[in-house]
Amino acid sequence: MSVLEIKDLHVSVQTDQGVTQILRGVDLVINEGEIHAIMGPNGSGKSTLAYTIAGHPKYKVESGSILLDGADVLTMTVDERARAGLFLAMQYPVEIPGVTVTNFLRTAKTAIEGEAPPIRKWIKDVRESMAALRMDKSFAERNVNEGFSGGEKKRNEILQLELLKPKFAVLDETDSGLDVDALKIVSEGVNRAKENTGLGLLLITHYTRILRYIKPDFVHVFVNGRIAEQGGPELADRLEDEGYDRFLTPSNVG
Ligand code: ADP
Ligand code: MG
Ligand code: MG
């Protein structure tokens, strides 16, 4: 049974104005197979949490810890985090000129597993996953994220998720800019990963829409750098009706 534990995490970022505290004591435990939705107003620090888990150098951990099956994630390089079983899909994916989707995936898979996957099986797996995500075959030969539409970027993220089979994934606003059809396809991919590999998921979203297709086990409301409230799926329904206004008291707005 795998577990990702975030304990009393404080994170700052250096800006022109000096050091700004963004995360102010985040506590979160995600077990294998669990889906946790993090919701919250813009600027509450959701992406900062995702970047910190990913090991983005811009974000400085002041105190607290992130443990994956007891191992200290914060001392791992970005590559080591991937090998340990973490998958991070960013709100703004980067272009990788000259590297095709197929080659990128095979290189990533090789790095994570420590050996290259057998070529025939790999090609079959890639084809199957692409078909499941209703992706055109030609997509495999395109350069990573180069000229991808919003929907193509998101599908590519889920393609990576399906093929790399991480223990835990962080999806940051995967729903933004997707039409309903693409949202359904992407959500089915996530649900398959949960079913097939016991994926644990941190699903960051501003809107409740994606939660109609990916059912969270837990919902956390993020306000001003920490979790202000948590509950089950019913909390998402309540947020859909009420928005975030009741969380934005003067003492909560940083
Ligand atoms: P969310 O994803 O919830 O919208 P973010 O984590 O993106 O929130 O941002 C939280 C706060 O931290 C915002 O006030 C934002 O301006 C600030 N912030 C985040 N990243 C940076 C950065 N790299 N440089 C300066 N400020 C940042
Ligand atoms: Mg934002
Ligand atoms: Mg964000």
UniProtKB/TrEMBL annotation:
Q: What PROSITE patterns does this protein map onto? A: ABC_TRANSPORTER_2
> Sorted alphabetically, which keywords does the UniProt record give?
ATP-binding, Nucleotide-binding
Name of the gene: sufC
**What is the scientific name of the source organism?**
Cryobacterium roopkundense
Q: Which NCBIfam families match?
A: sufC
What protein name does the entry list?
Cysteine desulfurase
Q: Where is the signal peptide?
A: none
The similarity annotation says:
Belongs to the ABC transporter superfamily. Ycf16 family.
Q: Which GO terms describe its molecular function?
A: ATP binding; ATP hydrolysis activity
The ABC transporter domain extends over 4-249
Looking up InterPro entries in the UniProt record yields: AAA+_ATPase (IPR003593), ABC_transporter-like_ATP-bd (IPR003439), FeS-cluster_ATPase_SufC (IPR010230), P-loop_NTPase (IPR027417)
Q: Name one Pfam family in it.
A: ABC_tran
Q: Looking at the record's lineage, which domain of life comes first?
A: Bacteria
